[in-house]
Design brief:
Its cofactor is Zn(2+). The chain folds into two domains: about 1-165 and about 310-365, Alpha-Beta Complex (Quinone Oxidoreductase, Chain A, domain 1), CATH 3.90.180.10; about 170-310, Rossmann fold. It is an alpha/beta fold. The two termini are about 15 Å apart. The chain is built from eleven helices and 18 strands. The protein is about 25% helix and about 25% strand. The strands form three sheets. Strands 3, 5, 6, 9, 10, 17 and 18 form a seven-stranded mixed β-sheet that branches. Strands 13-12-11-14-15-16 form a six-stranded parallel β-sheet, with helices on both faces.
């Protein structure tokens, strides 16, 4: 099969021919249709997030089940499926207490080691050299993933668009519903409306927020945010964003401010616009070692909550998202601005790094 291999940091992806992997017990082999292009992959490529290389990145996949390992009962060959980037083990302490988004097995074996949960990767070069897997290693024609992270899709959901459900929409859902707890009539601001930020906008609107304020420095992204449900947009390159938010909210600030870029500056911005008793939800992944400098007196005196949000709970939240999509309450296709082939994946990530991708790009990896 073809795969886009990250050989080393600060180097473009390389398209290679490698053997098709095989699923083991409790695992599923997916013939990938599509893989979303996520900024987190870019952090690995730039050396900003530690990960063993060489490896195959890509962690938003949709496709058709090609084969199942022993003991898999939730899907079967031929099923149309989507995968979640967090692949819960189901047995660690965090999974046992309902916090699959903090699955310690996933972080220890996959995110730090590039393997599945027996400590071995399923991907190798033709000469036997192992290739690390970032989640399922979705920038390839086939992927292996634990069955706990695979979910069947109804026919009415487009297979190529649904890839971004597994990270972009999944991450936004965890932030809005599980951590931000957005409620009817509340005010929301989203700082940085890239792929995840656009989905935070639409989920906040679906959750009943009275006002949804999108903040960015790119007019195209702000225009898209209006189509996704933003009631107000602010170009932070042209006006003071904090003053603009205060003007919209009558000087109070917002009930929930979401940061979706992963920088200290935008996180400070989110903290500045939260009202008394408000929630600041940090969603963007920053480079390792990034430190937040905020006015602690303001945080204490105004009882501002600063919370981190990483993904969502796969086995609870992905089925909920699929139901919302099937009911027509969420829009995936409008978030996607470009579809490219696997051969074009290296340049697409470079375009993402240059800030040229509106919403989400999707790599079409198969039928």
């Amino acid at each position: 099969m073809k795969a886009a291999v990250c050989v080393d940091t600060e180097s473009p992806l390389v398209i290679e021919d490698i053997p098709i992997p095989e699923p083991r017990e409790g695992e599923v082999l997916i013939h990938n249709t599509a893989c979303g292009v996520c900024h987190t992959d870019l952090h690995v490529m730039k050396g900003e997030v530690r990960f063993p290389l060489p490896g195959v990145l890509g962690h938003e996949v949709s496709g058709v089940v090609a084969e199942v390992g022993r003991g898999v009962t939730n899907v079967r060959s031929g099923d149309r499926v989507v995968g979640s980037f967090i692949m819960p083990c189901g047995w660690c302490e965090n999974c046992a207490r309902g916090m699959e988004d903090l699955c310690s097995t996933f972080f220890e074996y996959n995110r730090l080691g590039g393997t599945l949960y027996d400590g071995e990767t399923r991907l190798h070069r033709a000469n036997g050299e192992p290739l690390s897997m970032y989640s399922m290693g979705g920038l390839a024609e086939y992927s292996v993933t634990p069955a706990t992270a695979v979910f069947g899709l109804p026919e009415e959901i487009d297979l190529k668009d649904s890839a971004i459900l597994g990270c972009s929409l999944f991450t936004a859902y965890g932030a809005v519903r599980n951590v931000g707890d957005v409620r009817t009539g509340e005010s929301v601001a989203v700082v940085a409306v890239g792929g995840v930020g656009q989905n935070i906008v639409q989920l906040a609107a679906v959750s009943g927020a009275e006002s949804v304020i999108a903040i960015d420095v790119d007019e195209e992204k702000l225009a898209l945010a209006r189509r996704m449900g933003a009631t107000h947009t602010i170009n932070a390159a042209q006006v003071d964003a904090t003053e603009a938010v205060m003007g919209i909210t009558g000087g109070r600030g917002v009930d929930a401010a979401f940061e979706a870029l992963g920088s200290a500056a935008t996180t400070r911005q989110a903290t500045d616009i939260a009202r008394e008793g408000g929630r600041v939800v940090v969603v963007g992944i920053p480079p390792a070692g990034t430190v937040l400098d905020v006015d602690l007196a303001r945080v204490v005196r105004r009882k501002i909550q600063i919370k981190g949000s990483y993904g969502a709970r796969a086995r609870q939240d992905v089925p909920a998202l699929i139901r919302l999509l099937a009911a027509g309450k969420l829009d995936l296709s409008s978030v996607i601005s470009r579809y490219v082939g696997l051969d074009d994946a290296p340049e697409t990530y470079q375009a993402l790094d240059r800030g040229e991708v509106l919403g989400r790009a999707v790599v079409l990896t198969g039928p």
